[in-house]
Specification:
Largest sheet: 6 strands, mixed
Strand content: 5-15%
Shape: globular
Helix content: 40-55%
Distance between the termini: 76 Å
Strand order of the largest sheet: 7-6-9-11-10-12
Structural class: alpha/beta
Length: 534
């Protein structure tokens, strides 16, 4: 390749890398990131470190489960935490995952001989469904999966013993990053190799390395998956509503006031999930423009069937995959993140300087910058909403047990219940334990021992904390109760309390209650009144 063209291609990657790094700025604006499940992941990482500490008074409740396919995101944060603290460590990991996503897309497009410019399309999708729900290990696994597919493309083109071993090792690593990514990308890889090979006989040796994770998958399913701490595995859920959904959060609860199950189906909810914007005309228009940019620029569709395989498989997944399976909730929804990356694969490079070619690139950059600014504004609003929690957190003693009672889990921004698990930042920042905890779930590396799980578990309690009853949920086990609601709900929540509960502080929608330290389970008084401070 002539040096000039090589320099141009390197410059294109450099520009994409700079844009990808700039696109992570919104992650750093709020004190705590705008990710619903992230506080629980932070708690898991802190528990991983705390179980080896003799001063951690809750150690007896937990045990390690090392064999789980959700390690890589946790491992990165675990390494950074001693240097930066858990909050900054997670921001670094999330930023690394987001910035790697468009760059990995570019490498995949190059290996499939497409137009690497269209990797820019993936940037506006960075803050969509998977990010706002805080699916940490999934976000970290996605760019690794894209690089895995790039290796598959090279192996299919020029197979060798070294690429075979490397592909086998990569497939195993991908399993321990995230099982769902391993399964979907493994399927894409196998079909791609079959399409790119001259015959089935020629394809089989190339496909064999993809089978390397199967023993680990079998071992995981047989020995690990099933029940933990007496909790049943999450049942499969198959919602085929293409224009409306039966998924409770986006239908029956209708948190955004956009009508019961009317805007979040598999098809009409596609753009909101892709872009992380609530259903609106502007959301649909932005999505349509992003998908229209390549054809408008004059780009031509590839005639190679292989490069279409990732997009074809993804479309089938988004239309037909269960929304809940094998311990994963929101199974197909999270994969929307890949839509623009796989769409970018099907366009062939164009060597021209026509006006519409130049205008399309300007429009691509403009949309990228606009998406970054939009999310920067949203993160600023989210930071203001969480300020009250940071104040009550300062008033809580470390190493205590806390019950999360988030009656109002919604933020003014975003498409996820951003405050659903927010009190779990207490575990991350001050040790101790917050219930409900992800340590109840069968996919986590730290879990409750059998018989140690509390009645308040992430199998429904966090969605309906108003059902709290003192004895049923063992309120006497907790020192603090964190509530988010527009008014003082303490008299209702603690109406059956056998201990004295006082209101310590409240800021806006955030309320902190504390149990009388002299009240324990055996000696609990028959009844006591809620005593808020003046």
């Amino acid at each position: 390749m002539p040096p000039f063209l090589l320099l141009c291609r390197n410059r294109e990657i450099l520009l994409l890398l700079v844009a990808s790094l700039l696109a992570t700025i919104p992650v750093w604006i709020p004190y705590y990131p705008m990710m619903a499940d992230l506080p629980q992941h932070a708690s898991e990482i802190v528990l991983l470190r705390s179980l080896g500490d003799s001063s951690f008074k809750f150690s007896a409740l937990f045990q390690y489960y090392w064999f789980t396919p959700y390690w890589f995101g946790y491992a990165l944060a675990y390494i950074f935490t001693p240097l930066t603290g858990i909050r900054i460590a997670l921001k670094l990991v999330v930023s690394l995952a987001l910035a790697s996503f468009p760059v990995a897309t570019s490498f995949l497009i190059r290996e499939m001989h497409g137009d690497t410019w269209w990797a820019w399309l993936s940037i506006p999708a960075m803050y969509g469904f998977a990010f706002q729900w805080g699916l940490l290990n999934f976000l970290v696994a996605v760019p690794i999966g894209l690089l895995f597919l790039a290796l598959v493309a090279r192996h299919a083109r020029t197979p060798s013993r070294s690429t075979s071993w490397l592909l086998a090792a990569s497939a195993v690593i991908l399993f321990f990053c995230h099982a769902l990514i391993c399964a979907i990308f493994g399927l894409i890889a196998a079909i791609y190799i079959l399409c790119e090979s001259k015959s089935l006989r020629n394809a089989i040796p190339k496909v064999v390395p993809l089978l390397s994770p199967l023993p680990f998958v079998a071992l995981y399913l047989v020995k690990v998956f099933g029940t933990v701490s007496g909790a049943p595995a999450m049942p499969a859920g198959w919602d085929l509503g293409w224009f409306k959904t039966n998924e409770p959060y986006y239908s029956l609860l209708s948190p955004f006031g956009d009508g019961v199950n009317g805007r979040w189906g598999r098809i009409n909810g596609f753009f909101p999930r892709l872009l992380g914007i609530r259903p609106s005309f502007s959301c649909v228009l932005t999505g349509l423009i992003l998908f229209a940019l390549p054809p408008v620029s004059g780009a031509k569709l590839s005639r190679r069937l292989g490069v279409w395989i990732p997009l074809i498989v993804l479309v089938a997944v988004l239309l037909f995959l269960p929304n809940q399976m094998l311990g994963n909730a929101f199974t197909y929804q999270r994969l929307t993140l890949l839509a623009l990356s796989f769409f970018a694969l099907i366009w062939t490079p164009q060597e021209n300087s026509r006006a519409r070619w130049r205008v399309s690139r300007i429009a691509t950059v403009a949309l990228t910058v606009s998406s970054i600014l939009i999310f920067a504004v949203q993160m600023t609003a989210f930071d203001a909403e969480q300020a009250g929690f940071r104040r009550i957190l300062d008033e809580m003693a470390p190493q205590e047990r806390v019950l999360s009672l988030i009656l109002d889990r919604e933020s003014r921004v975003g498409i996820a219940p951003l405050f659903l698990h927010f009190p779990s930042w207490y575990t991350a920042e001050k040790g101790g334990l917050v219930d409900p905890s992800f340590a109840f779930l069968g996919i986590e590396p730290v879990r409750f021992r059998t018989g140690s799980a509390p009645p308040a578990t992430p199998s429904g309690f966090e969605w309906f904390p108003g059902q709290f009853e003192w004895n049923r949920y063992r309120g006497y086990d907790y020192r603090y109760f964190v509530v988010r609601f527009r008014s003082d709900a303490g008299r209702v929540l603690f109406r059956t309390s056998t201990c004295t509960i006082k209101l310590v502080d409240h800021v806006g929608e955030w309320w902190l209650y504390e149990k009388d330290s002299q009240c324990t389970a055996p000696a609990a008084a028959a009844a006591s009144n809620l005593q808020p401070q003046p």
